[in-house]
Amino acid sequence: MSDARLSGPPPAPSRRWSWTDPKLRSSVIQIVLALILIWLAWAFYANAQSNLTRLGIASGFGFLDNRAGFAISQTLIPYNENMSYGRAFMVGLLNTLLVAFLGIVLATIIGFLMGVARLSKNVVIKALASAYVEITRNLPPLFQILFWYLAVLSTLPGPRQSWGFGIQPVLGAIGSGLSGIGLGFLGGPLSAFAASLAAPSVFVNNRGLVVPRPIFEDGSMAILYALIVAVVASIAIGLWAKKRREATGKPFPVFWTGLALVILLPLAASAAAGFPVTVEKPELRGFNFVGGLRVIPEFVSLLLALSIYTGGFIAEIVRSGIMAVSKGQTEAAHSLGLRTGPTLRLVVIPQAMRVIVPPLTSQYLNLTKNSSLGVAVGYPDLFAVFAGSTLNQTGQAIEIIAVTMAVYLTISIVTSTIMGWYNKRVALVER
Amino acid sequence: MTDTTASLPPGRSAPVKPFVSASLREPEPAPVSTRGPVRWVRAHLVGSVPQVLLTLFGIWLVYATVPPLIKFFIVDAVWTGTSRDACLAEKLGRPVGACWPFVWAKLDQLIYGFYPAAERWRVNVVYWLGALLLLPLLIQKLPYKRLNAIAFFGVFPVAAFVLLTGGDLDLQRFLLGNLGFGALFPAPAAKSGLSIAFWLDFVASTVLVTAIAYGISRFLSGAEGARSAAKTTLTVFAVLAVVLFVVDVPLGLPQVETRLWGGLLVTLVIAVTGITVSLPFGILLALGRRSSLPLVKAASIIFIEFWRGVPLITVLFFATYMLPLFLPGRFTIDGLLRALVGVALFASAYMAEVVRGGLQAIPKGQYEGAMAVGLRPSLMMRLVVLPQALKLVIPGIVNNFIGLFKDTTLVLIVSIFDLLGAMRAAFTDPNWASPTTLFTGFGFAGIVYFVFCFGMSRYSMALEKRLDRAQRH
């Protein structure tokens, strides 16, 4: 063979078709990949067609208009079992968004508190925060949801023995505690004062959390309009104050003015409309509470577990973000005469945010995706309502799972777009 | 002082008064020591009023949580018994804490699920084999890492598969048979347990594929490339033949269906399979995402971002309810395998991102150096880039494994009973229903999960530190 090569003509024509030619190689690879993908798509389609006819499953999205026929335990928009699957889908989607949004807010608060606590000089606080982070991060989220639901919430007392929360029981407990340790001269009047207060209006029992419900009567919209006006005015004042400070150097108390506007304007509007918002307090009648707003235990356990679990991860992100800002920045700010508060607010946190925001985004996305675990305790989120009940009744697996996935994918993409925009704002501007 | 003014050039105006003190300052007192127990307490516990309040709050929190937990799980706990009567406060006449006999009674179910009692030694062999192969892999100092890795990632899964299921797969047709040439081979007949038709098909397919590979590479890159292509193909088929032979040959082990598996066994099977399968696919996807070919890149990005953008539960539902509809009607996949497919898809996407991070961390000079010495792209990746990148991402892989380990609990929702699922099933046993059963069960399961996850995360952190040090040299 080698002889033939040596004696024969140089392999000039074959060089044109050589595998080492990058252009040829790349087109061959891509054509092969395209063929494989097309073949896969075609095979899936053909198999799905034959399987669906064999199993007698309908296809298409016509089922969305059919009567759902199942009840949902938590609905943010009016819903009953005579409404359509499409309506049930909307109810589930809103429930998912609700728990995800509240979970993100709570987890962020917990995470920032714990992250700062882990950097505290105080060793007790630091050790407690570390224990929190290690325990919550190393237990599966589903384990935590089931723990809160089965072991904590369902072992609470029934409605008749509910735990009441409010200023009254707290003061009463402190009063009797003081009397108990021989400080009766302090505890007695405190207990008496507590007894004179109104009874608690927030209750916890094994059927969930009962809180007062605000009732909006005619004229409530005026308060909303006033709030919008106040927010817009605050933003305008902030912009004007920034411009003036840059021009003249004179500061303006934007925060306090804004706060006063946001509180006082709606109050004034409410007074003008004759206080249209009243509060309906829950009352124990017979074996259960009447009135008020009942938050189902499934929601409470899911929200607690999600925010505690994700809070542990956010704490680590916050800690590493703050640690990433070099000590020289703090020292330089101090030497310029900034006190601790402004140093944190103007120097350390803006730089830490650059490190914090990208991983924070993925934690928000994880929390949103993990909210689908509510199905394990029966929280009626998108997944439980649509991929659970609806799939069971209609059997249209392809459409339902595809739609469910598409919704979660959309939520993910929207969240990461918003956070990406925010990240661009806080990112280091380089020349 | 006058000297300085005199040395100034004549053109300069009035000299600046030198800023030098005329007299010596009094020495300042030595700085207060920051060492010693008293100083430490002052700095770390009682420096200021808020500090004192925080310390008191923390101590109260510890006092309010730790002693009750110890009391519940150890002091007041019941250690022996045969039914719920042992754990009832009324019968014992004292406050009752954790009901440990409940855990002892359910331990077999938590570790093996409903795996037949007579066959549980097989699960134990797999556990020990896995531990014996994994431990030396984790200890950096021990030699033969490559051999060890091949044993753990290549040999162990096959051995575990045969041991756990019982092997003896009823193999019918290989490539040609499945492509519609089934008539070429004799009707399925078994001789000493081996299906003749299958192995004839296998040999024929091997010859055919090798010939095609040889022909194409002969046409594209000459005789030498063709020989190496043929050699590679034959090696792949030889390895495949060994694997198929092992799962095909009857070893006399009774078959155990996967629906009998459960508990820790399922947790570990899913986590280890997920990580083993996702490693090669993740590497391929990561390379694809960094490829310069637009179609390859787009396909990889879509695949990765899709699976990362949806919750694992929907992936499991996809694999359980939707995937069977996409496959030809004659394929029936069992429940555990469906979940494994879902987990593998999901884990591959996450692994791809971890590997991509490693690839991005390799300086451009490494690529350019490899190209400069004339390495083909495939060799450049295999010999220069990947070894460095994979070493960098070992901590990331361990972290992925921790996530996967925690995520296995989700199979509960598609009715596969892992550790958490087995525990939940155990709660429903009326024989053990007592007020403290729930807390005991969650305590036990929590300790198991915590020990695994915390241990792995500490390992990953130690590894990260060591790699960091190695990088700085």
UniProtKB/TrEMBL annotation, chain A:
It is found in: Cell inner membrane; Cell membrane. The keyword Ribonucleoprotein does not apply. One of its GO terms (cellular component) is ATP-binding cassette (ABC) transporter complex. The chain crosses the membrane at residues 27-45, 93-119, 170-199, 219-241, 253-279, 299-318, 400-422. The keyword tRNA-binding does not apply. It comes from the Bacteria. Signal peptide: none annotated. One of its GO terms (molecular function) is transmembrane transporter activity. Keywords: Amino-acid transport, Cell membrane, Membrane, Transmembrane, Transmembrane helix, Transport. Residues 93-419 form the ABC transmembrane type-1 domain. GO terms for biological process: amino acid transport. It is a multi-pass membrane protein. PANTHER family: AMINO-ACID ABC TRANSPORTER PERMEASE PROTEIN YHDX-RELATED (PTHR30614:SF37), MEMBRANE COMPONENT OF AMINO ACID ABC TRANSPORTER (PTHR30614). Belongs to the binding-protein-dependent transport system permease family. HisMQ subfamily. This is Amino acid ABC transporter permease. It comes from Xanthobacter dioxanivorans. The lineage of its organism: Bacteria, Pseudomonadati, Pseudomonadota, Alphaproteobacteria, Hyphomicrobiales.
UniProtKB/TrEMBL annotation, chain B:
Keywords: Cell membrane, Membrane, Transmembrane, Transmembrane helix, Transport. Residues 264-460 form the ABC transmembrane type-1 domain. The keyword Cell membrane applies. It is found in: Cell inner membrane; Cell membrane. It is a multi-pass membrane protein. GO terms for cellular component: ATP-binding cassette (ABC) transporter complex. Pfam families: BPD_transp_1 (PF00528). The chain crosses the membrane at residues 121-139, 146-165, 171-189, 196-216, 236-253, 260-286, 306-327, 379-398, 410-427, 439-459. GO terms for molecular function: transmembrane transporter activity. Its main location: membrane. GO terms for biological process: amino acid transport. PANTHER family: INNER MEMBRANE AMINO-ACID ABC TRANSPORTER PERMEASE PROTEIN YHDY, MEMBRANE COMPONENT OF AMINO ACID ABC TRANSPORTER. Belongs to the binding-protein-dependent transport system permease family. HisMQ subfamily. This is Amino acid ABC transporter permease. It comes from Xanthobacter dioxanivorans.
